[in-house]
Amino acid sequence: MPAISANKKPLNNEAVISLRDLTAGYNRHAAVHHLNGEVRRGALMAIVGPNGSGKSTLIKSIVGVLKPMSGTCHVARDVTMAYLPQQSELDRSFPARVKDLVQLGLWQRRGLLSRYRNEDRQRITEALCAVGLEEFGDRPIDTLSGGQLQRALFARVLVQDADLILLDEPFNAVDEKTIRDLVALLRRWQAEGRTVVVVVHDLDLVRASFPEALVLARRPIAWGPTAQVVTAENMTRARQFQEAWNDDAHWCEPAPALQEA
Amino acid sequence: MFEFLVAPFLEFAFMQRALFGALLLSLSACPVGVFLMLRRMSLTGDAMSHAILPGAAAGFLLYGLEIVPMTVGGLIAGALVALAAGTVARLTVQKEDASVAAFYLVSLSIGVVMVSLRGSSVDLMHVLFGTVLALNDAALWLIVLVTAVTLLTLALFWRALVAECLDPLFLRSVSRLGGVVHFLFLGLVVLNLVAGFQALGTLLSVGLMILPAAAARFWVNDVAAMCIVAIGIGIAASLGGLLLSYHASLPSGPAIILSAGGVYLVSLLVGPRGVLRLLLPQFRHRTA
Question: Which ipTM value was assigned to this complex?
Answer without folding.
Answer: 0.84
